[in-house]
Queue: 4 jobs
Job 1
Amino acid sequence: MPNAVPGLPLVATLFQVAAVAWAPLPAQSAPLRELGVMAIGGVTSADPALLGRRFTEGYLTQPNLMAAASRGWLRGTATVNFEGYTLRRGELNAGMYGEGYVDRRHPHTLVHEVMLAAVSPAERPWRASLAVGKGFTPYGTDDPMMRPFMKYPVNHHHAQVIERVQAVGAVQLRRASRHLTLEQAWFNGDEPVSPFVAPRWQRVGDSHSTRLTVAPTAALEWQASRAFVRSPGITQGGAFDHRQLSTSLRYAATSSTRRWRYALVEFARTDEGLGRQRAFRFKSVLAEGAASWRGWALAARAERTERPEHERLLDLFRSSAGHIDFQLIGVTRWTIGTVQLAAPAWSLGGVQLRPFAEVASALAEARRTPAVFIPAEFYGAARQWSVTLGARLHVGSMRERMGRYGVLDPAHIATLPRPHTHGLHDAP
């Protein structure tokens, strides 16, 4: 009998590891335990969303239960995402696409990540780590869920490869807060087709990615990465393969608990084809930044990303989830500007609620003419506007970033036992 909720065995394994990590230890080597909940409640009005019509909808989006436990060289990390229950129809998000959703952000899988990582001792200036499980491959930039905006960028599938069963090896040269890190991963290429469908285990290892990260300071980070993803569009294989490239520069600094600055510039490219024969190329450039002062936060993002267009179903926000890549009816270039203003958080005990307002302007243009898919005719106007009012909920331990494992997980590195050094006071 098939598993009712695929992926739960992975969660059970993680909690068994966590239970061991939570066992009593001497005070000087106590494990680190983290548990947190996040979610966003919001109402979005988009005009025109489709065929000249305005749509206004409410959501509970990004509902996540996050847990982690560290003991010695081991760290288990899990994120359970409930969008399969709260976001079945998808979230209005002009230009966003993937997993059969178009102009709506798709729900993520129930088991968003469940990873177990081991890091080598730190007696030398270099470290190595091995991480296994389901999660974020070492490709591209941070999950948009952990960035300032509610609405995802169009380049989500060009700039990240997530929710894959993988093994990730990494080596790192570190001196204080500076480091150089090389990661290599092998994973399954198939894209999830619904929130409750497990990966195809027989495909684990058919795809791979490599990422080089250089951090000259604690606040500044540059990464360059590449990925080969085997037939993500059709789970059984046979569709176009993706060859993806990404590079980015990220800055994040906190001067106090009520004042921080953040900036990201990224370039991404996806080539679709068979073997070395390229059929399509999609490019993306994105820049975003945010700053806070006395609890108020202002964020802005500009993006230009190309996406493929496929035939829509009776529900015009959906396309076939197992499409044949060469059946494109057009390529659309999206130019989107987004601004968000967030108010100071309301705190009660361990609960934080942060209201915000987010405005976006999206311009859709056919990249090549003549084209079968004409954005201005389909939507009712070339430019679409959306306004979102909402509040972000945080309870318990929150992560600054998601998808960094082993030597790149700052929480893991901080809990590693320090090497014992012998001094005069150790002499018998």
Note: The helical segments are 8-21, 83-86, 156-159, 375-379, 410-415.
Job 2
Amino acid sequence: MNTATLTRKEARTDLYPSRGGLKGNIVPRNHPTVWASATTQPPVERSLVEQYERDGFLVLRDIFTPEEVSNLQAELDRLRSDAQTVERPEIITEKGSRQVRSIFKVHALSEVFARLAADQRLAGLASYLLGDDVYLHQSRLNYKPGFHGKEFYWHSDFETWHVEDGMPLPRALSISVSLTDNTPHNGPLLVMPGSHKRYVVCEGETPPDNYQMSLKAQETGVPSDENLTRLAEMGGLVDTAGPAGSVLIFDSNLMHGSNSNITHLPRSNAFFVYNALSNAVEDPFCDQPPRPEFIATRENISPLDIRKNSADDFRPS
């Protein structure tokens, strides 16, 4: 793997400025989507790698067996039940209610999800696409209960991770494991294919402790209506619905969001952000302190020990 790190000067050069008085704009992305060497054998069909490079995302079905999904669902339910009775910063509730929206740093709260994060079907693919050893920049469970799950507005993760966390380059990706059926109707992730090849400069300043609001409802780092319209007209809109056990992989710079869930069908996913070890975060590219460790890893950055798991490894203790 290419584990050469950026120099301090390279890491502190703001190659993707946003906010801070800049005017909203769409500019080219100047770095690859797939960082693997052309001679490295991919863990999936090469046509899927080409599709990922072109569209910025992949939906892979039947990656996890029904037994594995059942065990992961049991752990999902256990953590949600615990979250309703304790107060801790990793637990994010819906705006204006006590409904659990997300649980962050779930790999540190659950051995089951720590094993899932390091599973070769996820971390191995991430390491290949990023051409490097990988570490977890972030992990979380996203709950979107029937009737009450709220939307996640359009955004590029990299814009936030760059500005607020100090991630130098878009050499990161997210993998979401469907733990319930994601249908076209219960608020699945919507994406703009090809949008990952353009960086959207957002307007406005970064407020102090912005994460306290943005994790409930993102209002900073959101593209203008005009730029969202331009991106949608370039590549269209696609939902990423898939049954429980399917996996969504998407580039850190892909424009995405999701609607509220007004159906009776819950939509819950395990979500892992893999960053290249050579792309470790530095100081934020805004005039604010770093976000807390439970949102963005910076204190204990080390490569994942990628492993092969079985259904028993996902059984709650």
Note: The first strand starts at residue 25 and ends at 28.
Job 3
Amino acid sequence: MKKQQGFTLIELVVVIVILGILAVTAAPKFMNLQNDARTATLEGLKGSIQGAAGIVYGKAAIKGVEAESDDSVSDAGQTIKTVYGYPAATSAGIGKTIVGLEGDNADWAPVVSTVGLPANSIAYTIKNQADKATPTECSVVYTQAGEDSAPVVKVNKC
């Protein structure tokens, strides 16, 4: 009697079928990792914008211009345009508040499309997504402060 020294063809086919079924059920979980990573990065930008806006408001309050609808404060050699003490939703406002938010060497860029962008708002995204992102998808939208309200920062998932 000979001893069996391997797997039969049927056993190998069964194992391959089982692995295929596992791959089909597990693949969707891993397919969206890139978009999840982009969204998490945008959440980090949201936190930076909120923190920077708070610092600018503190500087405006010290200067006594937090109630002005059109003024500016200085920070690290930059003149930041403010609206009711918070950075304006422009390149001269929030764009100058955070290092690396705009410019040639920046990690971020303003969203090219402005369709759907609320009034007095600006949208930013990851630099390599600037032409693909919209104000409602894969972006962070900064809406400047009103007379009785703080600015609103919203993340739109990728």
Note: The chain has one domain: 33-156.
Job 4
Amino acid sequence: MVRFASAALLMSLPALSLAATPALAAVDGAQVFATQCKMCHQGASNALAPSLAGVADAKIAARDDFAYSPALKAKGGTWTDATLDAFLKSPAAFAPGTKMFLGPQSDENRAAVIGYLHTLK
């Protein structure tokens, strides 16, 4: 009887663990932003970081209320989803000498944050 109960329990474990796997849930860009970005990007531009309102599809390093690094100013172009992803994945590789040192590391978190940035107007 104990063997039967143990076997039944073991057979049900994969279904339980699959249902509880966080990777199956959609990543919340606002949540990732709040935990990984907001400490520096707090609404209005400040000494640490620029405001990110309207950053999606805007010119790179174009806000006049923040002193961007020469490296980021030299990039030119636009903050497309691809450039945002490259920058967030590795700011130093995207623009060596940039002031930003770390972004969301997983592909899912970067995609979620980029989606969230599109909502900031």
Note: The chain has six helices and no strands.
